[in-house]
């Protein structure tokens, strides 16, 4: 099936429903759609919610059970914890601003570490993504932290997860210790979700 350039957000959502109608995601085709989407502020800004203390996640489309699409708003110097993706594909399109991604190796679980033998996470690489670019990661590639490193400019990103998930693992960079985190949405379709409560875990 030939892909058409999605000129609107509705076009992108429709194309993703078709492309992700099965159980397997074609990473290159999905990435192409995310890259080629002609993002317009008047389309995605209605999903933007800003918080001075943390970044926010707004569910744009629940997909067809095989993915979800989310707008994330990042204030200056706001970032995620180091986290995994529950064996899901993760795509991040930068809508506005610049985002930084730091990729880490998974902590070594083959040897037990006592409190006196804590092992810090090992950084693999750091990448910067400008407006219009798309990042991709899955758990076989490592774990990561994403952040808006700018001190003067906010950032907006569009994330696609296939399959969708509501739990992931977060990691302490100094010790490698992990904990399970429940993901939350701050609002849906621009309206505050009744079940939304501020929680420490809200990772990208």
CA gyration radius, whole angstroms: 17 Å
CATH superfamily of one domain, called what?
Answer: Jelly Rolls
Order of helices and strands: HHHEEEEEEEEEEEEE
* DSSP summary: helix tally: 3
Q: In which range does the helix fraction lie?
A: 10-25%
Poorly predicted runs of 5 or more residues? 189-201
Fraction in beta strands: 25-35%
Q: Classify the secondary structure makeup into a structural class.
A: mainly beta
Shape: globular
Number of strand segments: 13
- Please write the CATH class name of one domain: Mainly Beta
Main β-sheet description: 7 strands, mixed
Q: Which fold name corresponds to the CATH topology of one domain? A: Jelly Rolls
Placed side by side, the strands forming the largest sheet appear as 7-4-9-2-1-12-13
Query: Overall pLDDT, averaged?
Result: 88
CATH architecture of one domain: Sandwich
Q: Termini distance? A: 30 Å
Textual characterization of the structure:
The protein has a domain at 48-189: Jelly Rolls, CATH 2.60.120.10. Mean pLDDT is 88; it is low at 189-201. The protein has helices spanning 9-19, 27-36, 41-44; strands at residues 56-61, 68-74, 82-83, 89-96, 99-104, 123-129, 134-137, 143-147, 155-162, 167-171, 178-182, 187-188, 191-192. β10 (167-171) and β11 form a beta hairpin. The protein has 204 residues and is mainly beta. α1 (9-19) packs antiparallel against α2. The strands form 3 sheets. The chain has a 7-stranded mixed β-sheet, with helices on one face. A 3-stranded antiparallel β-sheet has the order 3-10-11, with no helix packed on it.
């Amino acid at each position: 099936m030939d892909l058409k350039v999605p000129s609107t957000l509705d076009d992108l959502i429709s194309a993703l429903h078709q492309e992700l109608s099965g159980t397997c995601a074609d990473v290159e085709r999905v990435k192409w759609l995310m890259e080629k989407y002609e993002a317009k502020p008047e389309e995605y800004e209605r999903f933007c919610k800003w918080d001075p203390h943390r970044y926010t996640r707004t569910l744009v489309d629940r997909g067809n059970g095989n993915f979800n699409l989310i707008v994330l708003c990042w204030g200056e110097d706001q970032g995620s914890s180091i986290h995994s993706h529950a064996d899901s594909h993760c795509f991040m399109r930068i809508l506005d601003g610049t985002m930084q991604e730091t990729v880490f190796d998974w902590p070594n679980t083959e040897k037990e570490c006592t409190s006196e033998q804590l092992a810090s996470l090992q950084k693999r690489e750091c990448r910067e993504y400008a407006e219009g670019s798309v990042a991709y990661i899955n758990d076989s590639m490592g774990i990561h932290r994403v952040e808006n490193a700018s001190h003067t400019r906010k950032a907006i990103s569009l994330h696609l997860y296939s399959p969708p998930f509501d739990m992931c693992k977060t990691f302490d960079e100094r010790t490698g210790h992990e904990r399970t985190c429940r993901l939350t949405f701050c609002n849906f379709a621009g309206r505050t979700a009744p079940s939304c409560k501020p929680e420490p875990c809200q990772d990208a």
